[in-house]
Each structure stands twice: as structure tokens, then as C-alpha cells.
Design goal:
Strand content: 15-25%
Helix content: 40-55%
Oligomer: single chain
Bound molecules: coenzyme A
Number of strands: 5
CATH superfamily: Gcn5-related N-acetyltransferase (GNAT)
CATH class: Alpha Beta
Length: 198
């Protein structure tokens, strides 16, 4: 499916009735601020609703308490929340990577999420621009994001924010459990043989 197809319902929603997204966008007063330790529970629970294994699977990262706490601990200055009143309605969590023998500093926007009730009202755009500013101040030269190939909303969003050149990566998997079992069986066998011959 072409990512552009996802525009249709959104455009229809925008154009329709008194509760259109445009009107809501104007009414909402969203502020972006640095994430604080007391926000972690709310952010975690919002992420739990957004990053279910089926909807937004990520092979090498999982949305769990450790992920949230670890990122907040390692890069607190790159963790932001979007707030309407007291309610956290979105978040962005990033990190930076410097490769050895390279002058390039990479920024990675690891998690970006917006409460479904607030999606389509420009919250992610605000979060992204605030994070971008921080990455620029931090000397980042290349900013990367990754998402599933069928997460059309996210792909459309990232394209609109200026990301280009999607690189295709293929993940290959080897089941080490099977290998472990085979090796374990071999070890038990060789121990057994050693006992018999001693
Ligand atoms: C992707 C996501 C963060 C976008 O948040 P959002 O607040 O709804 O995005 P915005 O309202 O700021 O949208 C900005 C632009 O992105 C594009 N966009 C965002 N959502 C879209 C959708 N569902 N369909 C088509 N385009 C979309 C549009 O171009 C939009 O501009 P427009 O409103 O002028 O058309 C949100 O859908 C989300 O939380 N998804 C689940 C988590 C996720 O997949 N995160 C990304 C990977 S970590």
C-alpha cells in the first residue's frame, strides 16, 4: 500500500464538521517540556498503548520499564513530553551515538508516541522540532529514525519532517535455543562417557 493512501481518512476528518482536526488543533494548548522522573509512569503506560508487539513490533528494542528508565537515565536531555494541562499526550525519546574513528555524531530518535486521542493535531510535529533543536545544539550531524515498513503514519510523518533515503535492512534470525539444546545434549553425553571410562 502506498503511504499516501493513509491521507484520505485524515483529510476527510480534517474537512468534516465542527470537530475537525483543524479546529481542534487551534483549540489545543500543547506545551513541550523536558521529561521528568515523575513522568516516567505516565509515559510508560502511554507507550504500552502505542507500542504493542503486534502493531509496532521492533526486533531489537522492546517497550518495557527498563527501556524507558534506561533511556531516561542515559540521555535525559533528549527525552521530552508533550502536555495539555496536566495530561501527558505525547513523548519523544532520543539518544546519540558516536562511532569510534569517526567525526560524525549520530542522533537517534528512538521512540516517538502520541496519545491516539491527540493524533493528527500536530503534537508529534512539536515534539520533533523541539528534539531537533536539542540535537542541533548537541552537535549531531545525522539524525536517524527507524520504523516498521508498514507503519505508514510514521513513514508519512518522518517524510514530512524531512527524512529521506530510507535504507532497507534485512534482519536474519538464528534460533540459539535449538543450538543451545544440541550443545547441552552433547555436553551431557560427553560427561556421561567420561564417567564410564574413568
Ligand atoms: C506517528 C505519530 C507519532 C504521528 O503523531 P501525530 O501527532 O498524529 O502527528 P502530527 O499531527 O504532528 O502530524 C504531522 C504530519 O505527519 C503526517 N501524518 C501523521 N500521522 C499521519 C497519518 N495517520 N496518516 C497520514 N499522515 C500522517 C501528516 O503529513 C501530518 O501533517 P498534516 O496534519 O498537515 O497532514 C503517531 O501516529 C503515533 O504515535 N503512532 C504510534 C507510535 C509510532 O508509530 N511511533 C513512530 C515510531 S517510534
Amino acid at each position: 500500500m502506498d503511504p499516501r493512501e493513509t491521507d484520505e481518512p485524515r483529510e476527510r476528518e480534517k474537512a468534516s464538521g465542527p470537530h475537525s482536526l483543524h479546529r481542534r488543533r487551534k483549540r489545543l494548548s500543547i506545551s513541550i517540556r523536558p521529561m521528568e522522573i515523575d513522568d516516567l509512569a505516565q509515559v510508560f503506560h502511554l507507550g504500552e498503548r502505542l507500542f504493542t508487539a503486534e502493531d509496532v513490533p521492533n526486533l531489537y528494542r522492546t517497550w518495557d520499564e527498563h527501556e524507558v528508565v534506561d533511556l531516561f537515565h542515559s540521555d535525559p536531555e533528549l527525552c521530552l513530553v508533550a502536555e495539555e494541562g496536566e495530561r501527558i499526550v505525547g513523548f519523544a525519546m532520543g539518544t546519540t551515538v558516536t562511532k569510534s574513528r569517526s567525526a560524525w555524531k549520530y542522533g537517534h530518535l528512538v521512540w516517538l508516541g502520541v496519545d491516539p486521542e491527540y493524533q493528527g493535531t500536530g503534537v508529534a510535529e512539536k515534539l520533533f522540532h523541539a528534539l531537533l533543536e536539542l540535537m542541533l545544539e548537541d552537535g549531531v550531524r545525522i539524525l536517524i529514525v527507524d520504523t516498521e515498513a508498514d507503519n505508514y503514519a510514521a513513514i508519512k510523518f518522518f517524510r514530512k519532517m524531512g527524512f529521506s533515503h530510507p535504507q532497507e535492512h534485512i534482519y536474519l534470525a538464528m534460533n540459539l535455543d535449538n543450538l543451545r539444546q544440541r550443545l547441552g545434549a552433547r555436553k551431557t553425553l560427553s560427561k556421561e562417557m567420561a564417567k564410564r571410562h574413568s
